[in-house]
Amino acid sequence: MGSEYADRSVHARIMSQPITPQTHPPKGLMASLKTDLLASVRSRFRPRLLDHLDSYNRQTFLADLSAGLTVGFVALPLAMTFAIASGLPPQAGLFTAIVAGFLISLLGGSSVQIGGPAGAFIVVVYAIVDRYGVANLMIATSCAGLLMTLMGILRLGNLIRLIPISIVTGFTSGIAVLIALSQIKEFLGLRGPQLPAEFFAKVSALLGLLPTTHWITLLLGLACLAVILVWPKSHQAQTGPMGRAFSRLPGSLVAIVLSTLAVTFLQLPVETVGQRFGAIPTGLPVPSLPTFNWATVQFLLGPILTIALLGGIESLLCARVADGMTKERHDPNQELVAQGLANIVSPFFGGFCATGTVARTVTNIRAGARTPVAGMIHALTLLVIILGAAPLAEKIPLVALAATALVVAYNMGEWDAFARLRQFNQPYRITFLTTFVLTVVIDITVAVEVGLLMAGVFFIHRMAQLTRFDPVSPEELQAEGLSTEHLINTEVRRLSGVLFFGAVSKIEPLLDPHHQTAPILVLDLSGLLAVDSSGLDALKTLDQSLAARGTELRLTHIRPGVLSTMTQWGLVDHLGERRVFPTLRGALGLA
C-alpha cells in the first residue's frame, strides 16, 4: 500500500518546500511590521492626479473649473453646518474644507472624490469636544490621521471594505438619528445650556426646554426646509440658460441666502452665526502645533481609533460610489494615505476631522469634473469666499444651518432598510439593529466593535453548518466500482467544507470511547476545502483515539492545498505515508 503513494508523497514534500520559512524561528511581530512598512514605503507613491497630467488640456481644465466652483458653493453651507453641529465655530468647518479638501484631492487615489468635514463625524466630534475639549480633539485628529496613513502604507485599504454592509448601514442610520436630534434645539430656537452628548440625557434636556420654543425661529426653519426640499424640483420649471443655471444652485445655499436676507431686512429676532460665535476670520490662521504628550495620546486612544475607523470607512465608501458613477477604479491604499495626511495637517490650521463626502462628490461628478483638479479648485473657491465675504457669513441665522443638517441627516439614513428587514436573514437583522441601537444609545465605537463581533460569530456558525461529516453512500461507492464485499471491516466517511476551530465538533462523536467503529476508518477529503491548526489537531486526536480502540485511520482524496498544510504541520509524517492515499481504491488495498 505504501508504494502506490510514493509519487504522491514526493509531491507533498515538493509542495511544502515554499512554506519552509515557517520551520525557522519567527522574526517577531515588530521586525515583520518594520519590514512590511519599509517595503511599502519604497513602493511607488502615486496620487491619481499624476495619471491625468500628461493628457491635461484646456478643455479638461474648463470642465474642472466649472465643477470646482459648483462644489465650492455647495460645500460652503455644509462646512459651516457640520462644524456648528459638532460644537465648533463655523470657521473650523471652512478651514477643514479648504486645507483637508485640497490635500485629499492633491494626493488621493480617486479622480473625483471631494474631501472635507462630513456629517458622519458630527456625533463623534461633539462627544469628544464635550468630554475632552477642543485641544484634545485636534490631537486626536492628527493621531488618527497618522494611523490612517500607516493603514494605507501597509495596504490595509481592502480590509476596511470587508466590514459587513449590515454594520455600515446600522451605524450610518444611527448617526443620522443623532444628527437630527442634535439640531432640534437650534431648529426650535430653544433657550438653555448646551446639550449633553449622552443620548438619554440629551432627550431629557430637550424635553425640559420645549416650553422655551421660539416660534419665529421655528417658522423660519420650516421655510428653510421647504426651500431646500422644493428647490431641486425647480430644474424642470426653469427655461433659458440663466434660469437653468440659477435653478441648479444647491437648495441649502438658496435657503441660507434667503433666510439671511429675511433676518437682515426684516430685523427678525433670530440668533445668527455672528451673535453666537463672533467674527469669522478673513483668511487661514497661522499654522500652530497642538500641545502633544504621550499621556494625552493614551488618554485619547478611543477617540483616535473612532476617527480613524470612521474616516477610513466613509472615504472608501464614498470612493466606491464615485467608481460606480464614473466607471473608474480608485486606489484604496493611496486614498487612505491622502486622508491620513489631510487629517494630520488640518488641525494645524484650526480644522478638524475630514473624510470623503458623498453629496459633494456626487455633485462634483454631475457638474462634469474629470480630474482631482476640480477638488483642488473647490478648496480654493472656499478660500476666496472667506477672504472676501466672511463678514456676510456672520449674518447667517443658525436655524438655516440646522435645517440644512436635518436634510443631511434624512438623506444619510438608510431608512428603507428598516422597511425591508423581513427580506433579510436573521443574522443580518440582528447585526443591523444591534449596531443601530448601540450607535444611538451608547457610542459608535462600541457599536462597530459589537457589530463586528456578532458578524464574526454568525459567520463562524454559518461556516460550521457548511462543514459536513457523513458516511459515503452505497451509490457513490458503486460509482467507483466498489461493492459491499470491498468494505468488509471498513467504514468510509466523507469530510467536506472547512475544518476549522468552529467546526471540529463535527468529528467529536467518533472521539467517544464507546463509539463502535470498524477496524479501518477511511476519510474521503475530496470535499475538504481548507483546514486550520485546530482542525489538524482534531484529526491527530481522532487518530490517537481510534488507535486506542484498535481502529486504523486512513486519508484519501486530499486536495493539494490541504495536503500542503497537513505536510507543513506534520500530520502526514504523524500518520505515515502508508495511511495517506491518492484514491479510495488505494486506501482499501485494491490498487
Task: Give an account of the 3D structure.
The protein is mainly α. The protein has helices at 6-16, 29-42, 49-53, 58-85, 90-107, 122-132, 134-153, 157-160, 165-188, 199-209, 215-230, 241-247, 251-266, 273-277, 294-299, 301-326, 332-345, 358-366, 373-393, 398-412, 415-419, 426-441, 444-466, 474-479, 533-548, 560-568, 571-575, 584-587; strands spanning 115-116, 355-356, 468-471, 490-499, 520-524, 528-531, 552-556, 580-581. The protein has two domains: 58-184 and 197-276 and 289-456, no CATH class; 467-587, Transcription Regulator spoIIAA, CATH 3.30.750.24. Strands 3, 4, 5, 6, 7 and 8 form a six-stranded mixed beta sheet that branches. Strands 1-2 form a two-stranded antiparallel sheet. Helix 4 (58-85) runs antiparallel to helix 18 (358-366), helix 4 crosses helix 20 (398-412) and helix 16 runs parallel beside helix 18. It starts with 5 loop residues before the first helix and ends with a helix.
